[in-house]
UniProtKB/TrEMBL annotation, chains A, B:
MF term (GO), any: uroporphyrin-III C-methyltransferase activity
Record PANTHER family: S-ADENOSYL-L-METHIONINE-DEPENDENT UROPORPHYRINOGEN III METHYLTRANSFERASE, CHLOROPLASTIC, SIROHEME SYNTHASE-RELATED
SUPFAM superfamilies, per database record: Tetrapyrrole methylase
InterPro entries: 4pyrrol_Mease, 4pyrrol_Methylase_sf, 4pyrrole_Mease_sub1, 4pyrrole_Mease_sub2, CobA/CysG_C, Siro_Cobalamin_biosynth, Uropor_MeTrfase_CS
One Gene Ontology term from the biological process aspect of the record: siroheme biosynthetic process
Pathway: Porphyrin-containing compound metabolism; siroheme biosynthesis; precorrin-2 from uroporphyrinogen III: step 1/1
Pfam families cross-referenced by the UniProt entry: TP_methylase
Organism of provenance: Pseudothioclava arenosa
Stretches assigned to the Tetrapyrrole methylase domain: 26-235
Homology family: Belongs to the precorrin methyltransferase family.
Name under which the protein is recorded: uroporphyrinogen-III C-methyltransferase
UniProt keyword terms in alphabetical order: Methyltransferase, Porphyrin biosynthesis, S-adenosyl-L-methionine, Transferase
């Protein structure tokens, strides 16, 4: 059976790198929002072939199950406001793993290019003279939109979408509130639970209607997915009820069918499909 | 071998729907930017199980290869400015296919929730009383960012990203140019080739520097991927050289290594992996 390596310099999976192998390559891989069906084929292969996987805390167990027996799984995240490994430490571990010659996957939730501090890790690899590539992943806003059954853009309503974060290095992130408050504006707010009250205040101050629709998608695509919805003014209350990571869609209400049946949760199926195939390989 | 159906009401793949089967379900599936390694596991399965696949013209042949022999592949797209099947006709075909009881995949390039006119097709299914779900896909901006080796967001630079279109129902799309012209702003411009001169004019009029970096990613992730880059004022010339679909990243220059080696093209590998496995199944 053909099983081409996704790592440029790597041996076939399961084999140790040859003695002559150059130092390892790092693949930055997007793990998607959580459901293994939303992992890409490339990501599944990269995880399967990796010797070392440095992963965020939020990467789901079902996704990590693609790793082969014997691969080193190292958690380096970073969830919300809890204990966190400093970014410099993550960078150092990444460099050390690649220098050791392994096939290294740096596995990030969602898409590594969106709120993933990717540039900082790339800079560390560059400084060490190490090779890297990026495999994009499905970002939470795409999964959240699918879960509420709504397009993020619509002709005659919004010719643009904003992807924003509730927090940046200095605290609550500043945004172009005037543009976000405009009628018809749609924005996906990441890491917005603690910032909800701040965001609502800024939007209303800049002219947004307190009645505009908002949707909160907790654990988008995962088994514990929960959709709640209401008016902008209710957002702080809606987010307070969330335990897991939440994606907030400003300006969008769920499709009416989402509340009435199981549309809300992707519930695609159980997911033994590729895992089984890989174990047979 | 386990091969769970991704369609709720469907029989096992390859079997005709039972006589008692209710009318079909439509899965809106994101085909991603083109490279089959960027297809999700769920999308690969949905395409494999479908009886009927209505697909955009831009969906790559390698992705359509996942369809099983005997599936009906119907092109209903819609490329740039060429001949197009009217949206009403697409809606009608979708409804007819689902009413006939088949497992129907509506396969859209990228992510169906971003510039895919998804709400219009959902409204047609709702009016006909038909069930649907959405499987998100990798949108072009994620693939383009990966190809130029840059994060779309960066602490201290931009706490938000704009996803905008060059065209809407009325012609060149209007945007919040003032916000887009701000220093550090990053935007992904879809369908921006013809609108390039208009966009550059608006941005400069609203205070953008003519020297800010832009990257043009043609056929992102595909075998004909090409990255060109320059200053904002050069954007119209850069896009004129493009034949294929192009994604424009405003405010981002490619990572220096992208120009110097094969970083630019994902070139993940050949991709017989899952296709082979499916054929063995």
């Amino acid at each position: 059976m053909s099983f081409f390596s996704i790592f440029k310099r790597a041996a076939r999976p399961g084999q140790a790198p040859a003695a002559s192998a150059p130092v390892g390559e790092v693949l930055f891989v997007g793990a998607g929002p959580g459901h293994p069906d939303l992992l890409t084929l490339g990501a599944a292969r990269a995880i399967r072939e990796a010797d070392v996987i440095l992963h965020d805390r939020l990467v789901s167990p079902e996704v990590l199950d693609f790793a082969r027996p014997g691969a080193a799984l190292i958690e380096v995240g970073k969830t919300g406001f809890g204990e966190a490994i400093p970014q410099e430490e993550i960078n150092a571990r990444l460099v050390a793993a690649a220098r050791a010659g392994g096939r290294v996957v740096r596995l990030k939730g969602g898409d590594p290019c969106i709120f993933g501090r990717l540039d900082e890790e790339i800079a560390a690899l560059d400084a060490a003279g190490l090779a890297w590539r990026i495999l994009p992943g499905i970002t939470a806003s795409s999964a959240a939109a699918a879960s509420i059954g709504r397009s993020l853009t619509r002709r005659e309503r919004n010719a643009g979408l904003r992807i924003i974060t509730g927090h940046d290095a200095r605290g609550f992130a500043d945004q172009d509130w005037r543009a976000l408050a405009a009628p018809g504006a749609v924005a996906a707010l990441y890491m917005g639970k603690r910032a909800a009250r701040f965001v609502v205040g800024r939007l209303i101050m800049h002219g947004a209607s307190a009645d505009q629709p908002v949707s909160v998608i907790e654990n988008a695509s995962g088994p514990a997915e929960r959709v709640s919805a209401g008016r902008l003014a209710e957002l702080p209350a809606l987010t307070q009820a969330c335990d897991g990571p939440a994606l907030i869609l400003l300006g969008l209400a769920p499709h009416p069918r989402v509340a009435s049946d199981d549309q809300a949760n992707l519930a695609l199926s159980d997911f033994p499909f590729l895992t089984d195939l890989l174990q047979e390989a």
